[in-house]
Structure formats: structure tokens, C-alpha cells
């Protein structure tokens, strides 16, 4: 990956990680409610599993997203619609609670599982992999994407 492409990747990753979305809203709410220490499993679920998702999508589907504009654009619009619906549901929900009604933060596994249904995450994964996966080096470029998103994801989720 050229230096110019890497700098563009860093810019897109920082914007994607630090702009509002379900992960940032949920982790900010958890941090404000439960504190950083109790929110760390949620932070790690985001910071480790989302980059893993980027890697897997890039390595296995990056070429397909580069080749099919219709697929790429369809997924982006569907993701945007789902993101708006989830934002509404989060805004009107009472928060997570146990069976006894006591609120609790996400566990690492819950945060990890959420990455696979997060529409902003999928939209970002499709956009980034369609632009930065190099067909001649899919493993290396997917690994680079994943590493960048580990750094950005952990930085975003902890701030």
C-alpha cells in the first residue's frame, strides 16, 4: 500500500471510528452510567471484533465489493436505513437490564456479537474494503486494514 493510500485509510478510519454511530452511542452511555472500568469489556468487544470483521470482509469479500457497484451501493443504502431504525430504537429504549430489572453494561461477548449486526460497521467495512483491498495482496491489505481499525477502534471507544 502506498503512503498516499495509507494516509487516506487513516483519515477514513478515524472519521469512521469517531463519528456517531451505535457503537459510540452505546459505549458512551455505558461509560457515563457505569464508568470506564465496568465498560472495558464493551470497549474490547468493539476494539477487537470490529477490526476482525474488517479483516474477514476484506480478505473474503473485498474483490466482490470492488467488482459489483450494485452490491456495494445496495448494502450502503440498506445499512443507512437500518442505522436510522436502530438509532430510533436506542433513543427510545430504557437501556439494558437483567431479569431483575437492574441495569448492566454490555459484556465482551455481547459487544462482539453486536459488531456483526451493526449497520454502520457493515457500511464502513464495505466502503473501506472496496477501496483499499489490493487484489494482488488481499491478505496483507486486509491485515493492514484490521490493524488500523484496532488502533482507531480502541482509541474511539475509550474516549
Chart the SSEs and their pairings.
Layout: H1 3-18, H2 22-67, H3 69-92, H4 108-115, H5 119-132, H6 138-158
Helix pairs in contact: 1-6, 2-3, 2-4, 2-5, 2-6, 3-5
Could you describe the 3D structure shown?
The chain has helices at 3-18, 22-67, 69-92, 108-115, 119-132, 138-158. The chain has one domain. With 159 residues, it is mainly α. It is globular. 81% of the residues lie in helices and 0% in strands.
List keywords for this structure.
single chain, 159 residues, mainly alpha, globular
DSSP helix count?
6
- The percentage of residues in β strands lies in under 5%
Order of secondary-structure elements: HHHHHH
Number of domains: 1
What gyration radius follows from the Cα positions, in whole Å?
16 Å
Percent range for helical residues? Answer: over 70%
Structural class: mainly alpha
- Overall geometry: globular
Largest sheet: none
How many strands? Answer: 0
**Separation of the first and last Cα atoms:** 29 Å
Mean pLDDT: 86
- Uncertain segments of ≥5 residues (pLDDT<50)? none
- What oligomerization state is this entry in? single chain
State the gist of this model:
This protein is mainly α.
Amino acid at each position: 500500500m502506498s503512503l498516499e493510500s495509507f494516509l487516506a485509510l487513516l483519515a477514513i478510519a478515524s472519521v469512521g471510528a469517531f463519528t456517531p454511530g451505535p457503537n459510540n452511542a452505546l459505549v458512551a452511555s455505558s461509560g457515563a452510567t457505569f464508568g470506564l472500568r465496568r465498560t472495558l469489556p464493551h470497549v474490547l468487544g468493539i476494539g477487537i471484533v470490529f477490526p476482525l470483521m474488517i479483516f474477514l470482509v476484506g480478505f473474503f469479500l473485498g474483490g466482490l465489493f470492488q467488482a459489483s457497484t450494485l452490491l456495494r451501493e445496495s448494502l450502503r443504502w440498506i445499512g443507512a436505513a437500518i442505522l436510522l431504525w436502530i438509532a430510533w430504537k436506542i433513543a427510545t429504549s430504557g437501556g439494558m437490564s437483567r431479569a431483575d430489572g437492574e441495569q448492566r453494561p454490555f459484556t465482551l461477548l455481547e459487544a462482539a456479537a453486536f459488531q456483526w449486526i451493526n449497520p454502520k460497521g457493515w457500511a464502513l467495512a464495505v466502503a473501506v474494503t472496496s477501496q483499499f483491498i489490493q487484489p494482488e495482496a488481499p491478505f496483507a491489505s486486509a491485515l493492514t486494514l484490521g490493524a488500523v481499525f484496532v488502533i482507531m477502534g480502541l482509541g474511539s471507544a475509550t474516549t
